[in-house]
Structure formats: structure tokens, C-alpha cells
User: What shape does this take?
Amino acid sequence: MNLSKIFKNTLLVLTACLVLSACATKKEVAIQEEPPKKEEPKKEEKKEEVTKIEKIAGQMQGDVYVGTESVKYLADGVPDRVFFATNESILTTASRETLRAQAAWLRQNPGVTVVVEGHADERGTREYNLALGERRANAAKDYLMTYGVSSDRITVLSYGKERPVDSGSNPLAWSKNRRSVTVKAN
Assistant: This one.
């Protein structure tokens, strides 16, 4: 008796499965078309992009600005600013050359006093950038003093990120803003 119940139940389950599978609807599989390929940029556009990258690379050495478009002059042939690496107040070789030229000019003009302004890029807090700007200005002042300029003739002032020379928000703009500027005070 038990065996016949098991057999009947098994037969019922198999029959139910057959009926259900026969009633199942066939699903259509949607074939996705490949998305249209993006057009390759024209050679002229690629060339313009490469030219922009080369221009930026030509104005920066590492992350220090070495271009001349934002440089003004303290005196004829004497640049007024030096540039720094990110979060640094260490003078680069180019910065030292500029400061030696400034020191030579200041020694020839003993009646001139200057303000050395320290600046930072837009990143970081206001307080951090003010302190960093002051360290940069003091680094320039110390170097000028090493080359014979009296500390009485040099005042240090930090603007931090408050006076950017380039308001952009990219590596080139940031490198232009990380600077120390020597300005005639009288």
C-alpha cells in the first residue's frame, strides 16, 4: 500500500511537471545592437590638444611654474617673483637665480625698501595658506639677506590664497599662484 501511494504521488508530480512545461511560453531573446562607435577626434582636434599639453608642460618643471607670462619686473631685467612646489617653501634653482638678481639690484639701490609677499594656491585652509605664504616670503627674505641686503629694508607679508594671479582651478594655475613677490615699498 505504501508503495502504491509513493508511485501515485510520483506519477502526479511528473504529470504536473509535464503539463507546466508544456504551458510555458517561449521567451524571445532581444538581441542588442552594438552602440554606435564614437567618432575618432579629428586630427586637428588631437593636434590642438597635444599643443595645449605641450604648452602647459613647457611652463612647468615638475609642479613648479617656470613660464614667464605672469612674471612682472621689480626693475629693468629683474623679475619680481619666484615660484614654489606644492606645500613647499624651499627655493628652486631658478628662484635662487632670480633672488640673486634682486639682491644685486637692491645693493645698487640702497634707498629702496621692499615688501616680500608670500602667496599660496587655492587648496588648503585659509590659516594653512597664510602660514605657508609667510614661510615662502621668509625664505626669499633670508636668501636676499644672504646676498647682502639688510633685513631693515625687507618687510614680509603673507596673503595666503587671497590674491591669486590666475583664478583657474588646474595645475598650471595653482603653480602660478604658489609664489613669493618682491614689491618696491617706496
Observations:
- The mean pLDDT is 84.
- The CA atoms of residues 89 and 139 lie 7 Å apart.
- The beta strands are 60-61, 64-65, 73-75, 78-79, 81-83, 114-119, 154-160, 179-184.
- The helical segments are 2-23, 43-59, 93-108, 126-146, 171-177.
